[in-house]
């Protein structure tokens, strides 16, 4: 689990059926200084309505992802856990 | 599992219901020299009462996290296992 | 889960039986600038028909992989989730 | 799974009950040259009796860890698999 | 899952009983150029007969490892999936 900023999203017509209707965000991790973001973007399924520029809490738990998508055989692992409150 | 220092916390109003009432800590890893901390902060759920500056033992086990939260469908993975004794 | 480009494939005669008939792609991760790819290639099972040069969404979920392969004891973890639409 | 050297241990009074009586080792990974160790220490539960300076085989499997600890809800993931024979 | 070269093996007398009779290989990852290998060696259980110098496909799936070893409580995670065909 970490905190990152939404830097964009991805679209895919050919995909696993469990992702139908899901928003796929590209998220980059918050660095140690607590302000800059860096690294490779991770692909994250969002059901909470996060948008570009939001700071989000993301997790890699596959069991929780399957519950969230209501699909027992989904291969999705990364999902948005929460949207960080603005300070 | 690793040892790290609590460097802050995060708050989130829009979040997965299983995290209601949980404290979300930002933890940075202890480095090889056994004293300095560095790297990107990891987001960790705490039920043991760790505070800023404490050295904590953290783990990424999702099954254990779901037991700790009493919620079978939580996507939480990282939790505080223990607070390291001060020397 | 991340986005990467298919840079090649691998063949193997001596292998786990659950991978029979599967295409094994070598995928390199999209970098933070959203254009270049870099890093070590990951080995990914594909059932969606991705080819060399395609941008694909990949995941490391073992439970989803076993469903995709129709094999309860497969040790496969990385699979292609979707093919990113061309812009 | 990797091979590393035991560089110390950690103690914790406030901890998850499943770790009661367990030795918590700090282990650093063997590098590519097969001799030096480096990187950040990982925290590993040991039931095999490894001591400081020993080369150990470590694994991150949570299901195996729960069996080893005899506790279905333990969040422990990293355990000592074996002690490498001295050459 | 990735492709790597077998650079050696490890032996251990004191170990988890599920590993009895297993060959433990040290494998280093294939780099982005598709020819050189680098990084820290990973410890991998092999049942396919790979030898030093072979290019192997390796995976970190614990459920598949337990099936391969015929042992429900093994903490092993990394296994050899296949031996890459020589070109």
Protein model, in words:
The structure is a homopentamer of 87-residue chains. With 87 residues, chain A is mainly beta. Chain A has one domain (2-83): Beta Barrel (OB fold (Dihydrolipoamide Acetyltransferase, E2P)). Helices cover 9% and strands 47% of the residues of chain A. Chain A has a 5-stranded antiparallel β-sheet, with no helix packed on it. In chain A, a hairpin with a 6-residue loop joins strand 3 (23-30) and strand 4. The model of chain A has no long low-confidence stretch (mean pLDDT 91). Strand 6 of chain B pairs antiparallel with strand 2 of chain D, so a sheet runs across the interface.
* Portion in helices of chain A: under 10%
- CATH-defined superfamily of chain A: EutN/Ccml
What fold name stands as the CATH topology of chain A? Answer: OB fold (Dihydrolipoamide Acetyltransferase, E2P)
CATH level-1 class of chain A: Mainly Beta
Percent of sequence in beta strands of chain A: over 45%
Poorly predicted sequence stretches spanning 5 or more consecutive residues of chain A: none
Largest interface, with Cβ-Cβ < 8 Å?
C-E, 32 and 27 residues
Characterize the largest beta sheet of chain A: strand count, sense, and whether it forms a barrel. Answer: 5 strands, antiparallel
Strand order of the largest sheet of chain A: 4-3-1-5-6
SS element count, helices of chain A: 1
